[in-house]
Please model this.
Amino acid sequence: MKRNIELVVLVILYMLLGTFIINKTDERSIFMLLYSSCLYISMGAIFFANLYFLFSLFQKGQLKRYLLLNLFLLAITYFTSAFLYASWMADVFKNKFLVSHLFHPTIVQDSLPLLVFVLFFSFIYAGIKHLILARKFILLKKITFYSIAVIFIIGAVFFINMQMDLKYKGDQQTMFIEHQYQSLDEVLQLPQFRSKVVYIDLWYSSCSPCIQEFQHLVSLKEQLKGKEIAYLYLARETSHPNSRQRWINAVKKYNLQGWHIYMSKPLEQQVWKTILGNQQDSTTAAYPRYLLSDKNGNLVSYDAKRPSTGKVVIAQIKALL
Model:
């Protein structure tokens, strides 16, 4: 009876947490939503399978069987999640899905560590629960100490990795504007944008349509090379815990040469208030969005053409040069 009550409570808490996380997901691509849901369900499957079934094998000394079943469970959950992530990437970049994509570094990095961590956590949780019930408090103290030490080390590794990513300051082609401005007009009056046409890209790191457009920027920039034009990327803050780190990594990954601002909430609100106030047919703040300002720093297009339109957007920009 107590076991059933514990199971029901844990499942309800897990479902509530999952609902909150999925609802906070910024990405609205069906594949990414399915991936997020699948990964969360996979983590739950690993946790509950170990807590209520597999840990008993460890207690009985069936270590080989315990490890093999966990490896099987880990493989099934990883490849299911990886398939959905790879499908999202194929959809974004319009590529053919390949089995090798399941081992793409980005997919491995975003999925496998979480699954392994949950596997480790479930083992520790089940072990501590068993020791408490068996009243083996001396052993419990030792295991608790070592568990905390391992979790601290893992946390330190992730923290150091995040700090190293955040230290990236760009180069001569990729530059960051650190000051938090309150309006886009203030930004466009900066020296680097004076007497230049500015092509403004509003995006965020997990926006699949935004990412899809990046591949067309290379051709656009090449055809406008040497012209008096600057590229400004305005990135929104997402609900992801390490949103800023993901933003910087995306800038590096997609080689987004130009000026970058990680928008504060007031700036984002002001930008969209300006856009929607000048676009009668626009009622929602949908990403990506492209703007154009002339050489005097005045916004002249609140819904500029996307990079994928090719000659159309180039003609729109050249008209202002």
Q: What stands out?
A: The two ends are 76 Å apart (CA to CA). Residues 176 and 260 are 5 Å apart (CA to CA). The chain has ten helices and six strands. The mean pLDDT is 84.
